[in-house]
Amino acid sequence: MKDLTIENITHNTITTNSLNPSPRLRFLLSRLVTHMHDFARETRLSTSEWRSGIDFLTATRQTCTPDRQEFILLSDILGLSLLVDAIDHPKPPGATEGSVLGPFHTHDVPHMRSGDSISHDPRGEPCLVLCSVRDGSGNAIPGVKVDVWETDSSGHYDVQYADRKAPDGRCVMRSGEDGGFWFRAIRPVSYPIPHDGPVGKLLLLLNRHPFRPAHMHFIFEKEGWDRLITALYIRGDPYETSDAVFGVKNSLLVDFEQADEETVKKYDVKAGSLVLKHDFVLVSAKETSDLRDRLSKEALGQKVKILHGLPVPDVD
Fold this sequence. Notes:
Elements: H1 9-17, H2 23-43, H3 47-63, H4 70-77, H5 80-88, E1 126-134, E2 145-149, E3 170-174, E4 180-186, E5 191-192, H6 198-205, E6 211-212, E7 215-221, E8 228-234, E9 253-254, E10 257-258, H7 261-267, E11 274-281, H8 285-300, E12 304-307, E13 310-313
Helix pairs in contact: 1-2
């Protein structure tokens, strides 16, 4: 390769990268290089701007710790996280929609039973959470692994405390034979995402606030079912329509109820205390795979084929 120019550098880069044996990797790199080079040409990207971008990504990496994933945060505030989830986990009508994972999910989580309390924050307003997991026909799905996490009453996750000794505000439990699971928590509050790092500086440059509306995270997993990452958002929160990470969807907005006499007796809570109820609807792995394949072909045209569940150019 000689005499590489603005006009031919893209083709030559793609050709060089095409020597790898993976059709999917060739496709990804081809499109990445094409769009990245087109971005540079369309914006007439300067050397100083290119350098600023490199420095920003370097600072993002240096901010990451075992308990803080600044790159996920960056993906979140650019809308990429939600976009990828929607593409990779499409939902038929009636299924619970996905939301963003966020940067504070952990794997050192206590396993609890229905009825346990996930929060030990004495300042939080107690909240009873009553849920079920069902399929699209309303049938209960027992034995689903349910991963739950929320902030404390000040809007901080447990991992944000330097003196954290044990997990709090999070748990893993299983749905029962009737598909139900329930636990005691505290009322979610709105809070700012970490904005003391490069992502926070970017938000400031963009004149955007760092706040998320009050919510509670959930992950649902069981063999044969598509993994669901989602959250429930409290309706009426001041940041409901301006979530810094674009996670809110109308179908995920929920309202609190007040514990009635029957609930007080059954769950041993005070009359009038907060109750959050929700029925989650999962989709089978096969239905999701079929829907994803169909949507991929519709979006990319018949010029692609599906290989190992992912689209690649059909050059045969």
